[in-house]
């Protein structure tokens, strides 16, 4: 049986050209991985803050101080009893040796004399440098701590260092964990000791090449990124790239059952697969690029980096992978080698065919039942609270957080993260205004020069609490009439980040939906089907958010969701979730041309059910790998996408979409005629 295939498909799969198409891109990518370093970025304090926000402007003013001390660390000495005069003398001597030899004031002693506190400026040129300095400070303190005392380091610099250490070696851990998950699932899917090696190798090379290409693009364009960018990029490239590979290989295996030549079989499989993969990739890339509208610099960088990664993943899946596969004979599928005359998927009596038969008998019942189920899960969104406190950012509590909790037992709770007022107005007048704020235990001018002054206001409330945020609001009200005066600090930044995240969602979410809808309209050349498909994906997102929130509260004990998670989860779930609908509906459109909508959808579900389920389970598992990092924001993002992709794969694509198509019949494609 012969097929007419596009010239590009014949070039990729030809007997004389396949080895060039497979080997040359792989060699070039490997050379780039070996000799081209990842892009470099000098992290700025404002990279993760909303552009133009009050707290961001405060940080920018702080950088204008003539002796910008950067962030500070708080050294806390504690004892089970009371500090003696000898202890005080020893701590005063030890404190004098800190902060690069710059002698500061003696440590403050708590009223109960169980703790002493010293403020140490930390001047660092990068996040890595900050980690090194905090590590050195901790080692120095522990080496010289007086007998009977414990010492810990907290404060903004220490918290940032502990966050940074989460990512020490993270790229390697994520890569190994992701590759292991993909390998196991590919082996289970193909039940072959050989076949899984081909897609895993191709996608693995694409992943490493994407990291280099994406970070260099970010460097060239001047976009910011942080430690999590490459990790999320890697998970996305592995997940999407392997999904594309599963779709291609499934179609290739089917073609081998009707075609003698493996080259002709792959050419036809590639021609049939390219439209779905390209439509999927373009949808995801456009969705990712909407993040350029975010107020957060690192979010903009993440969008561009992941868009570059998707382009590379799709290119390797549609060019390198098919060429590499045809270099091997049919034996690569051993022990389940496909032969001409074997039953093709669309004619098989698989579990997906039986599910489709059940849906076809009572499609309206399945539509109502699945919608009710999704709606019940979505009710969890009504109680979601966003905004993580510093103490809630880690799955495993680091020293900076435990020390902050202990410090609050002996000193005002806000000491670890005071409200920071930066002003170009008269500092004495600004100080007098903030001293009147209820809930502020103390306020003092900490530095000034070149027309800029910094004032620290210590609230009598635990950082991250509603009371602490109320103090921030009152301080902002108190200084509102002063020119060039801005309020920063951890609580102020958290308030601004929540506001910015809400604004980002209101702006970006509708654009993502319009882009996805427009892409589906162009692909399917219809109106009703795209609207229904987008609606099902939105329903999946709402259900995943609600179900995940119940898991976060009931199982993991999270009291809040990170402010940026809803937007990223929406982007990944809508952009990636619509992939499976594209894979299903493009096949349904193909089958409907000869069999009608109802039978065509049943045949499409029978043919694609296994591969799409495998792809969905794999993508869900890959995003769950983000949980290997002890940072709550990544664990939450991974969990939501895990739940959402499984819902989309096992419920929405398997039941709801086929039921809608079977209920509406040919009207599903309106205004197009089947």
From TrEMBL:
Q: Which domain of life is it from?
A: Bacteria
Q: Does the keyword Lipoprotein apply?
A: no
What's in the keyword line of the UniProt record?
Answer: Cell membrane, Membrane, Transmembrane, Transmembrane helix
Question: Which Gene Ontology cellular-component terms appear in the entry?
Answer: plasma membrane
Residue spans making up a coiled coil are none
Stretches assigned to the SSD domain: 209-327, 515-662
Where is it mainly found?
A: membrane
Q: Which InterPro entries match?
A: MMPL_dom, Mycobact_MmpL, SSD
> Where does it reside?
Cell membrane
Pfam families, alphabetically?
Answer: MMPL
Report the protein name in the record: MMPL family transporter
Family, per entry: Belongs to the resistance-nodulation-cell division (RND) (TC 2.A.6) family. MmpL subfamily.
Q: Where are the transmembrane segments?
A: 18-36, 172-190, 230-249, 270-296, 302-328, 366-384, 506-524, 531-552, 564-583, 604-633, 639-664
UniProt xrefs under PANTHER family: MEMBRANE PROTEIN MJ1562-RELATED, MEMBRANE PROTEIN YDGH-RELATED
Q: Look up and give the membrane topology term.
A: Multi-pass membrane protein
